[in-house]
Amino acid sequence: MLCRGQGTGDCHGIRDDTSGIREVVEISNEKVFRLKPVLDEHVTLIKELAKDIEVDFWRPESPELVTIDIDVDIRVPAMYLDMVHTILQQNDMEHVILIDDLQTAVEAQAQGPTPRAHSYTKYNSWDKIQSWISSIASSNSNLISKQVIGNTYEGRPMTILKLGRKSSSRKPAIFMDCGIHAREWISPAFCQWFVKEAMSTYGQDSQMTSLLNEMDVFVLPVFNIDGYDYTHKSNRMWRKTRSRKSGSSCIGTDPNRNFNAGWCTTGASSNPCSDTFCGYSPESEIEVKNVADFIRRNKSIIKAYITVHSYSQLLLFPYSYTFELAATHSELLKVAEGASAALRSLYGTRYTSGPGAATIYPAAGGSDDWAYDLGVKYSYTFELRDTGRYGFLLPESQIKPTCEETMLAVKYIAAYVQKNLY
User: With contact defined as beta carbons under 8 Å apart, do 144 and 161 qualify?
Assistant: First the structure.
């Protein structure tokens, strides 16, 4: 089944639109290339390639964002490999193969047998995460309360964990979400790790104790639950939500293009089949609306917004929908650089900090820009490990070090916010 010019994600052999039966997507022999465009002709070629065949853009996330001197990571189906090889060689475009066989890489991601129980060093299914949400909340009832903020398109409850010592008055808060994009599995792994660390170090680690005494941390462990569940059961490479609209065979919207921040003006697609589809209107996705409504309701207390993605090792802040600098640019940069230094101190992992548009590429409709424009001054996007060797398929052996170092950066931001409330 070939979907010419329809971008990715909607036609990798999945025919669940009518029958309701989910088939597991076949990805054996697919490769991930890194292309290095250095001429305008190279950029044009990549965009034409995307129109002619089904190519999955890993970084940047769509052909519209391809420019000279920015590496382009693409996943190519087996049937097009010879053709792509030939085109690249004929046009003298430098390239390397990052992943030689995608199916092998997917299988290598899970290291050792899958345990029956939830594990902080494994990529847990949604069912396991849902059970974990209940158990960690009930076993830490003095520090955690939970709240369902609505259901997903497919009816799954979106539960926020509120971490913090109980208080008679409303405390200032930090909001953190993981898993906006379904295939970025290391992201939800971090939110689970953060909750575990907060609970196990409260009363021992002075910084965490002070944070949870004086502030609350709202954690949404998985934002795009339907998409995440789908990546575990059918298509490991799925990115978007799973919403449907009558009259279109294309499924889902990119939730991080669906916020009302320069909506659909740049770095987003109005094509429902694209992986960066902005949706039919701002907050057309119920998941986005649920989160936006929650943040709006709690706008007076939410002082920081942190959203966790992968991959690229970046710590970004507004703006992404414009090249204009944020009003508090210098302070946002100072905090980001401090957090990146804290992260690097553990394993030497290097992060680049800066505003989204100038640091990677312009992209409208992002949650961090939206939160900032709403008045949440400290608004950050993490792009976790790695820089492309494994991409979205970071092995489970890297969950622990990734989470440990990211914890240092998040704690740095939280400590700064705590001392600089506004």
Answer: yes
